Amino acid sequence: MRKSVRILISIGLVTCCSNPAAQVKIAEVSHIGRPHFKITTQRATYYLDRSGAGISSVVDTDDIDWINFNGDPHITGAKGASSGYRGLGNLVFRSDDGGAGHPGFDKCECKIISQTEIYCESISKKWAWTWAFTDEFGKITLEKTDPGHAYWFLYEGPVGGQFNPSQHYWGTEEGGPRYETPSLHRGEAVQGKWQWAYFGDEKLDRVFFVAQQEKDGLVDYFAYMGDDGELANDARDGMVVFGFGRDTGAKPLMTSDGNVFYFGFFPSKIADAGLHGKLDDYLQSLLK
Question: Which residue range(s) make up the domain with 256?
Answer without folding.
Answer: 106-287
